[in-house]
Amino acid sequence: MDADYLPFHPNPSKPTFVPPAGAVDAHCHVFGPADTFPYAPQRKYTPCDAPKEKLFELRDFLGFERNVIVQATCHGNDNRALIDALRAAGDKARGVASVAPDIGMDELRTMNDAGVRGVRFNFVKRLVDATPKEVFLSIAEKIEQLGWHIVVYFEAQDLEELIPFLKQLPTTIVVDHMGRPDVTKGADHPDFQRFIALLENNENMWVKATCPERLTVQGPDYSDVVPFGRKLVEKFPDRVIWGTDWPHPNMKSHMPDDGKLVDFIPRIAPTPDQQKALLVDNPMRLYWS
Ligand SMILES: O=C(O)/C=C(\CC(=O)C(=O)O)C(=O)O
């Protein structure tokens, strides 16, 4: 792993908040182990191994029933670790893959059988070299045939430029990590309001109310991120999902305690109805129906 890479928390606390029955951790990753599933040569970071067994252990410990495992850039378009984890989890996991435009429908169908239900388009400049929009559009055309959706990861300052492209995508779109707002500007700032307006005007767009630990400036207990998550849960109760982001690649300031991240949930989704929608009904509709 990279010299400055922080490994995941070795012994997270037991959360006080008990997730509703059937809760889904809808954003997490598996990394390696590198001797079986090597990292991609073009990767921008080398993580510590975070194998499926550790993920499943954490799922049970935190009180979740299911995972959505998202392909991260350190594995490039090599989805073998993801597929291996999905097969091992059986019906308890679904996946989001990263694919090249020349992928065939047969390979996509094999992935579908393993539990993949979406692809991820990553626009974060520190993580990937830019991919031409036509390439993404040609992938979108293929995966649309399987009823999959597209997860997009971008930073707030790049949203404006991306909007015309996002509007061209033919499927459900899920935006990672609240659209990565600058929380120092506040949730009423025009930047976050523009993101809210985008979701209001495009009913195919969903959002993950994830990653207070990445967005915070104050640090734990992430109070500066609460207004952002709460606004998304209130405004889009049937289009918002939640996940741990375990094993938290590229965290530089601190490594979050996953139990504390679970305790963040009732602060952004205070009512049992909101919690059930966020953790059960919405992810089940998107990934298991
Ligand atoms: O865990 C995440 O979702 C966020 C990441 C890593 C990532 O997305 C990737 O490597 O593909 C990040 O901001 O470094």
From TrEMBL:
Top-rank EC class of the record's enzyme: hydrolase
CDD domains membership: PDC_hydrolase
GO molecular function, one term: 2-pyrone-4,6-dicarboxylate lactonase activity
Domain Amidohydrolase-related: 24-287
Superkingdom, natural source: Bacteria
Keywords assigned by UniProt, alphabetized: Aromatic hydrocarbons catabolism, Hydrolase
Record's catalysed reaction(s): 2-oxo-2H-pyran-4,6-dicarboxylate + H2O = (1E)-4-oxobut-1-ene-1,2,4-tricarboxylate + H(+)
EC number(s) per entry: 3.1.1.57
Pfam family, one: Amidohydro_2
Stated family: Belongs to the metallo-dependent hydrolases superfamily. PDC hydrolase family.
PANTHER family linked: BARREL METAL-DEPENDENT HYDROLASE, PUTATIVE (AFU_ORTHOLOGUE AFUA_1G16240)-RELATED
Protein name: 2-pyrone-4,6-dicarboxylate lactonase
Source organism of the structure: Oricola thermophila
